[in-house]
Write a structure and sequence with these properties.
Radius of gyration: 28 Å
Largest sheet: none
Shape: rod-shaped
Number of strands: 0
Mean pLDDT: 82
Low-confidence stretches: none
Length: about 100
């Protein structure tokens, strides 16, 4: 299962982005250098690409989840009913009532 937004929410999200991610990136750099030096040609490229591809997949999943949440909030279905005829009728009644009060 790929982690999503729910695993990054809460009080620990600041610690995650400020401490864990930079440490992970530094360790990933050294891990990649080790993989490129230690193994022979075709295997070293494949092993060195595993972690960046996994990070990219998680990044895409989080971006898609955020986009879907934004879409549902802004453009998705709402409980508001657009009844224009009733709105115009109420507005006209209000204008007529105002005219009668002024006269």
């Amino acid at each position: 299962m790929i982690p999503g937004i729910n695993s990054l929410e809460g009080a620990a999200s600041g610690v995650f982005w400020a401490i864990v991610v930079p440490i992970f990136l530094v360790l990933n750099f050294f891990f990649t250098m080790f993989m490129l030096i230690w193994f022979s040609f075709p295997l070293n490229i494949i092993l060195a690409a595993i972690v960046p591809v996994a990070v990219f997949v998680i990044f895409i999943k989080i971006c898609l989840e955020r986009f879907v949440n934004w879409w549902n909030l802004v453009i998705g279905e709402s409980d508001f009913v657009w009844d224009v005829e009733t709105g115009i009728k109420e507005y006209m009644d209000l204008i007529n009532k105002k005219k009668k009060e002024d006269a």
